[in-house]
Amino acid sequence: MSTRHILLGLLAGGPSHGYDLKRRHDDHFPQARPLAYGQVYTTLQRLVRDGLAEVAGTDADGGPERTLYRLTAAGSREVGDWSGQVTAPAPFVTNEIFAKVVVAILTGGDPAAHLRAQRAAHLARMRELTALKTAPDASLATVLAADYALHHLDADLRWMTTTQDRLTSLTALTAEVDRA
Amino acid sequence: MTNHPAPLVAARDLVKAHGRTPALRGASLELGAGEIVAVTGPSGSGKSTLLHCLAGIVRPDAGSVTYGGERLDRLPERRLSALRRTEFGVVFQFGQLIPELTALDNVALPLMLAGTARGAAQESAGEWLERFGAREHAGLRPGELSGGQAQRVALARALVTGPRVVFADEPTGALDSLAGEQAMTALVRAARASGAAVLVVTHDAQVAAYADREVRLRDGAPAGLEVGA
Question: Please, are residues B225 and A113 in contact by the beta-carbon 8 Å criterion?
Fold first, then answer.
């Protein structure tokens, strides 16, 4: 995830200050980890250093003075390039559930029991997400984020079911070989 | 299931074979009043047969099915079909609407069969179509509806009599994901509003996520733990 490009994307809508960017980030990515203020300011400073954003003035708005930032032409090109780039389909298989199943097999654990318990946890989370996205007042951002998470959890569940079937048929085969 | 102390529908140790093929081998399930339960499992795990036994559509070879404490599997056919008409609503994968009737008359039909006059039945049917976002299709015949529209009409028909239990067998199986989502959202909202319990059979975890809990079947019997909210 590129916080840098997301901030550039948010700045494309017009000059903003750090607090506003953080708030808009959390609105547009409702299921993401909320952005820390510190991270917003450090990233903004780097964007200025790299010529992708610049200080557009200050805005007091009744409260303390806040620095406004805006996109530069280079920043606008950069965010356009980034959002148009095809993302490399995950080149490595790194997933904690996958790793735990492999380790359970290596250590003589009970991968089937583990997969059943994991299914329960996945479905509980899927229920929460379904309730979120079907609430009458759900925002588009919430629906999109919940859809994304639901489809990925569903993909995990499919893999888990296939793995369970594979392990069951392997166990049956091993038992047959042992008997022979 | 702390909210549902006495089950409305309960199946115990059901056994059922289709010819020589066993479909259920000791399946049990409880459904509380107003509860939404998903029955999931791979093809051939017996989930549709379980639904058919619970809804009184087929009788099990062994085991018991109770509805409100009464043995459903022992009821004479006439009482069973009266019960199915008044207390149960059923939806299948392909809505199974009557092709010659308009959407409105399809929904009004269960009320008319139960003795409601045509005008009153149509009025009520119109309200249910509205709740399922299908009022504008009232005058169309099933052949003129999309899969999603037809399924929402079928759901309205299942709920029009105010059933205490809705049985839905793969209700989104023939729909694309957005139409399926609309159908499930409408079904859950309507069931919650009317207090109907829902038993939904599905192979799709995203559909199961609309339910309060999941009962997973494998080879006609429960597969390990029940997965609850």
Answer: no
